[in-house]
Amino acid sequence: ASYDMGGHDTYMHKEIHEQADAVDRVLRGRIDDRFSTVHLGGLNLDAREARRIRRVKILGCGTSYHAGMIGAQMIEELARIPADAEPASEFRYRNAVVDPDTLYIAVSQSGETYDVLAAVQELKRKGARVLGVVNVVGSAIAREADGGIYVHAGPEVCVVSTKCFTNTTVAFALLALHLGRTRDLSVRDGKRIIEGLRKLPAQIAEILKQEELVRELAEEYAESRSMLFIGRVRGYPVAREASLKLKEITYIHAEAYPASELKHGPLALIEPALPTVAIVPDDDLLEKNRAALEEIKARSGKILAVAHQEQEKADRTIVVPKNEDELDPILMGIPLQLLAYHAAKVLGRDIDKPRNLAKSVTVE
Ligand code: G6P
Q: Which residues form the active site (predicted)?
């Protein structure tokens, strides 16, 4: 593809900086202030059907799977429907029980990933209802699905996904709000979420203004042989995605772990040469997260926190703007996209085309 890079040195850099506009697009025309909900024209799911859903299962690969993990949490929180995400590649091969009261959602930037498409086809063959959360209009997965949401991120050229990830998480917030408002989410909470959604583009712009600080940090971290990413509940999928982004474009080994599981293994790895990136939202788990930082510090581990306020136990904190608790995961990974990008630059990597990877894997 050859879209204009618009003065950026890579598509990745351009796409990171397009995120405020991209989020604006996924929201546009969808918010209904009168009923504190959203309209999703392509969903093809009426209120009666929405109320009959007993579970939600989200399927995707790579970055889309991580966006789905965030989506599952939002659906569970706002709509109170049990929801989880699973790699489509695993789901396909485990002869999963297909349940008529489960809503299946396939997530894909390209809409062409073979493992996701094959999962959709298998589900449809078994009579399941499948929605798509897809970027590319008219793609195979979009056509195969019974309905869905286009994420309107615009063309994404860099092999690793940034703006589409962010837009996909916003699309899930819209779906969670919509499902919530057909069920037990109050008008008041609906309003609260809508206000939060409207703040996102300006908050993204604010985060991107810290690029210089992140670039300096990246110089320091680019020397690491390995990095640990931790988060708890809302922060965990953010840690997963940040870890994936780092390994994809820098080839630095990175591992993501739930902060709550540190004591069951990864603490053994902690030493000054293994830095930890901790996602520390200002939510009801803040104190628990602080305790984890303390555990790491006590073992001389170096810590970079992404948080809503300066973290005393961290060596450095990237402070991001606070949104509603449920929407915080949409924002918290954005500085870490920049961290991966600048670390890859220091290392002289081929950022838009990392070795051994393809933008979409359309074969078995
Ligand atoms: C490939 C790409 C990833 C992407 C994944 C899923 O592995 O390198 O960046 O997340 O496919 O792609 P999709 O188009 O289905 O979101």
A: 359
- For ligand 1, whether the C-beta of 333 sits within 6 Å is no
Q: What is the pLDDT of residues 37-62, one digit of tens each?
A: 999 999 999 999 999 999 999 999 99
Return the closest-CA partner of residue 85 out of 64, 99, 101: 64
Give the number of the atom of ligand 1 that is nearest the alpha carbon of residue 160.
9
pLDDT digits (tens, 9 = 90+) for 108-162: 999 999 999 999 999 999 999 999 999 999 999 999 999 999 999 999 999 999 9
Rounded to 5°, the CA angle 173-175-180 comes to 95
pLDDT value at position 174? Answer: 98
- 139 close to ligand 1 (CB < 6 Angstrom): no
Q: Answer for the pair 10, 249: CB distance below 8 angstroms, yes or no.
A: no
**Residue of 89, 90, 105, 110 to mutate, ligand 1, most atoms within 8 A of C-beta:** 110
- The interface predicted TM-score (ipTM) is 0.97
Angstrom distance (rounded) from CA 100 to CA 98 = 7
Could you tell me if the CB of 347 is within 6 A of ligand 1?
A: no
Number of H helices and E strands in the chain, helices first, is 14, 12
Mean pLDDT across 67-94: 97
Question: What is the 8-class DSSP label of residue 298?
Answer: T
Task: Give the whole-angstrom CA distance, residue 43 versus residue 137.
Answer: 14
* CA 100–ligand 1 middle distance (angstroms): 28
359 is catalytic: yes
Does the beta carbon of 162 lie inside 6 Å of ligand 1?
no
Q: What whole-number distance in Å separates Cα of residue 107 and Cα of residue 123?
A: 14
Pocket test for ligand 1, best of 360, 362, 363 (most atoms within 8 A of CB): 360
